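Q: Convert this sequence to structure tokens.
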Amino acid sequence: MKFNKSYKILLFISMILIILELSSCSVKKMAVDAIAKNMTGNDTAEVFLSDNDPQLVGDSLPLVLKMMDMLVSMDPENPNILSNAGSLFVMYGNFYIQLPADMLPYDQWQEQKDMYARAKKHYNRGYDYIMRALNMRHKNFSEEMSAGNFDQAFADMKKSDAADLYWCSAAVLAGCSVDVLDPVFAARRGDAVRMLFKAYELDPDFGSGMIDELMMLYYASMPAGMGGDMEKAVWHFRRGIEISDDTLLSLYVSYATSICTKNQTREGYDEFADMLEKVLERDVEASSANRLTNIVSQKKAAWLLENIDNYFLIGF
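A:
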């Protein structure tokens, strides 16, 4: 019998609740093994990304995250559990902590600072879980990376590893975006970029545009002498639109904030507004896989339009 992903996540949560009531260690182990067997890649994050109720997801995720922590403690050597836990922590930190913090008014700077600190904790935990999974799937992966032996580190990787590499890279780059001076994230940034490029090499269509969006943000944010390239950033934007069938609205938001803002002229201002208005005009149900992302993108686009003058220093 085949189950869709929504059913699988309901089964997953139900089984965790059952585990809480069990006293036999052997029965607990059997239940955890059964859950882990149903996990592949980062499918738990994918289920939440397809939901159409951001508040429901936001209210339920903290409990799910603690349940994932519990599963990790019960079966610390299971890479599937670690991968799913890691991607969920990164997703929650981005959608439900960093994004709301980004939209706080200036007079709430202390609350924003505290929320950014929380987001970094989630990114760190997500990174740690996924790195543990990578080390289990690829012996001495982190040691080879630390030693600069990148060919050896990536030697036996396959398309199925792209998800872990993407989420691990996303965790670090998100942490850098929150606090560019954070020594922990700064030290990991170089390896995170290498993991991002390897993920793209293994599966350039991963996430149907998600990896192209992260590539676009990388090329647009870095100085030219450190790998930045606006032409490549625009190329990845266009490719992301193409392979997602133009259903990933976050691409437009990222383009507006990372590329349009570089052009501090009337032309850049108008393109910024145009990109965000396109987001607001779209049907968030056009892609079931991107429902949550698209709803969140519309919320951010509306806020950016209301605060557009904060992004352009020249008055028109």
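The radius of gyration is 20 Å.
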